[in-house]
Specification:
Blueprint: H1 2-16, H2 64-76, H3 78-98, E1 104-115, E2 130-143, H4 149-215, H5 221-255, H6 290-311, E3 316-327, E4 339-348, H7 356-422, H8 428-462
Antiparallel strand pairs: 1-2, 2-3, 3-4
Helix pairs in contact: 2-4, 3-4, 4-5, 4-6, 4-8, 5-8, 6-7, 7-8
Length: 469
């Protein structure tokens, strides 16, 4: 009868080993837009392979130097190295948890020289006071995990490791965005510097013209001082542009792991092309952003954590075995007379813990609700970021057209004012006003164009920097 009962118990144990007390996992449902509000290209539909934003999204700007800097960032940025180390740490911890799924086997060797008390209870008269005790043992333990506690711990650890991998992708994408934004900013400053440099040449010619007219008693001293002031102000603005560029160059050096003193970014006044944003970008693709993927994995981990907390209410069954030998300093440890062994089940269940298990169960449920709310918030944030950058691109496109018209009008007015001044029909104040207006219109146009590029960088990053079909 006993063998039949043992076989039945083993069958029940193996059956229960597939049991899990974690709730059935369902990814939190969040309504995603089928069409973005500020898209001007019609309803967004399912993306095709050719519509995908490339993973190296900055290559859409066709700027080789930016690509070189991005590659250098991946190799040398210390923050990215720290994020990678954190990911490795999470993987190692998940591997530790996997060890709980397997039997634990260990060996112990204990050679002792010891003395027992003369007053030890039940000590025999023939027992020596000082003796050797050599012990060699092999221990085996295996938690049957009938309620899925270990398996849920493993599942949670794997999910946390996956979330850490997504965190690494978030860190990488964030640093890539910073670098691209700084590069766009520096290139915009180079363009503004060229505008100011060209204006300085015009102002110097105007100053020389005014000086000649003053010496010829055609222009007043007031006109001369106005021309001198205008030239000095333009030079001061150029100095400010250079100061801002130096700060941007230093920030880029830090991102690519270089010392500012060893890093130099050549001046480049060629305009960056605004990349074409593909039309087929449905809202469902936002779920592939690394921050959203990380948030979803943490929801899964928290769900598994509920199963771990529930399992604490049930008895823990494990198998324990011990095999070894013991001598008094002489003889073979493995001979039959010196061997000892033990084999049997271990069952444990706390009867009173002061409410610890109840608190742990509430904590696990609260952590799940927190993770689900965080996931919801990440999705809403992603949608907002896409909408923000789409609206920025739309509004800045109109502003660029209007500002270009303002530049054309201001430059024409500047030409008229200078011609009229040379003909003696206007005083120099009108020239200064026209030139200042033209300069500010050109600088404003450049600022708007840089903002367009910044918005395109923001949109590409908001879409996750690319995805897999």
């Amino acid at each position: 009868m006993r063998p039949r009962l043992d076989a039945l118990a083993l069958l029940i144990a193996l059956t229960l080993q597939g049991c899990s007390l974690a709730p059935t996992y369902r990814q939190p449902e969040v309504a995603l837009p089928a069409q973005f509000k500020d898209s001007q290209i019609g309803p967004w539909h399912s993306a095709q392979v050719t519509d995908r934003v490339p993973e190296q999204w900055w290559q859409l700007y066709n700027e080789p130097h930016l690509n070189e800097l991005q590659q250098q960032l991946l190799k040398a940025n210390p923050d990215l190295a720290a994020a990678l180390a954190h990911y490795d740490d999470a993987l190692a911890y998940a591997s530790q948890l996997h060890g709980g799924l397997f039997p634990q086997l260990g060996v112990s060797l204990q050679p002792l020289r010891q003395r027992q008390s003369d007053n030890r209870p039940l000590r025999g008269d023939t027992q020596p006071s000082v003796y050797n005790s050599d012990t060699l043992s092999l221990g085996l333990s295996f938690d049957l995990d009938l309620w899925g506690r270990i398996r849920n711990q493993v599942a949670a650890g794997d999910a946390q490791a996956q979330a850490s991998g997504d965190d690494l992708a978030v860190a990488r994408l964030s640093l890539q965005r910073q670098l691209a934004s700084l590069y766009v900013q520096v290139r915009g400053l180079d363009a503004q510097g060229k505008i100011l440099t060209d204006s300085l040449g015009d102002y110097q010619q105007a100053l020389q013209l005014t000086r000649d007219r003053y010496q010829g008693k055609i222009a007043s001293e007031l006109d001369l001082t106005r021309a001198q002031s205008q030239l000095a102000q333009a030079q001061a603005q150029l100095d400010d542009i250079q100061a801002q560029r130096n700060l941007g160059e230093h920030a880029i050096a830090e991102l690519v792991g270089a010392l500012p003193s060893d890093f130099n970014l050549a001046v480049n006044v060629q305009p960056l092309a605004l990349p074409k944003i593909p039309a087929a970008l449905p809202g469902s693709l936002l779920q592939q952003r690394p921050d959203i993927a990380a948030a979803e994995r943490r929801v899964f981990a928290a769900n598994a954590g509920i199963g771990v907390a529930r399992a604490a209410w049930y008895p823990d069954f494990s198998l324990s075995g011990l095999l070894g030998g013991q001598t008094q300093g002489a003889g073979n440890l493995l001979t039959a007379a010196n061997r000892f062994w033990a084999l049997g089940p271990v069952v444990s269940l706390p009867l009173f813990d002061g409410g610890r298990r109840s608190a742990a169960d509430r904590q696990a449920r609260a952590e799940f609700e927190e993770a689900a709310a965080h996931y919801h918030g990440q999705v809403l944030k992603a949608v907002r970021e896409v909408e923000d950058n789409l609206s920025q691109l739309r509004d800045l496109q109109r502003e660029t057209q209007d500002q270009q018209a303002a530049v054309d009008a201001a430059q024409h007015a500047e030409q008229i004012a200078m011609s009229s001044y040379q003909a003696g029909a206007l005083n120099y104040l009108d020239v200064v006003t026209a030139q200042t207006t033209a300069l500010e219109a050109q600088r404003r146009l450049q600022v708007v164009q840089s903002s367009q590029l910044q918005a395109s960088v923001g949109l590409l990053v908001a879409l996750g920097g690319g995805w897999k079909a």
